């Protein structure tokens, strides 16, 4: 069955870095657009970054542009989110998403907390 398993979350001080990883299985990973979303308490889920199936196109939310980098490995079926210069406002549950046409899959999420 389809699985998206996130890892790498945790507690980090402001200005620190974290690297999230998402391991995918059960679908043709290389043909899917992969994204990272996040949801903070009391807020709607928002798109953080995405990378298309050919690694030609990437998108970043304005709030993370220049600090976060999304990448994918189509051999290992993983997608990563390198997060630098973290701020308290980055605190949220981060979700991995895979999308192609009408197919849309989600991971269970990983908590990122930025606090001193």
Oligomeric grouping of the chains: single chain
Rg over C-alpha atoms, rounded to the nearest angstrom = 13 Å
Structural class: mainly beta
Sequence of secondary-structure elements: EEEEEEEEEEE
Give the helix level as a range of percent.
Answer: under 10%
Q: Can you count the helices?
A: 0
Distance between the termini: 40 Å
β-strand percent reads over 45%
Poorly predicted residue ranges: none
How many beta-strand runs? 11
Largest sheet: 7 strands, mixed
Brief overview, please?
The chain has 116 residues and is mostly beta strands. It contains no helices and 11 strands. The N and C termini lie far apart (40 Å).
Task: Walk me through the structure.
- The mean pLDDT is 96.
- With 116 residues, the chain is mostly beta strands.
- It contains no helices and 11 strands.
- The strands form 2 sheets. Strands 2, 4, 5, 6, 9, 10 and 11 form a 7-stranded mixed β-sheet that branches. It has a 4-stranded antiparallel β-sheet with strand order 1-3-8-7, with no helix packed on it.
- Strand 4 and strand 5 form a beta hairpin.
Features:
116 residues, mainly beta, seven-stranded mixed beta sheet, 11 strands
List the helices and strands and how they pair.
Layout: E1 3-7, E2 10-12, E3 18-25, E4 33-39, E5 46-51, E6 58-60, E7 68-73, E8 78-83, E9 92-100, E10 103-106, E11 110-114
Parallel strand pairs: 2-11
Antiparallel strand pairs: 1-3, 3-8, 4-5, 4-9, 5-6, 7-8, 9-10, 9-11
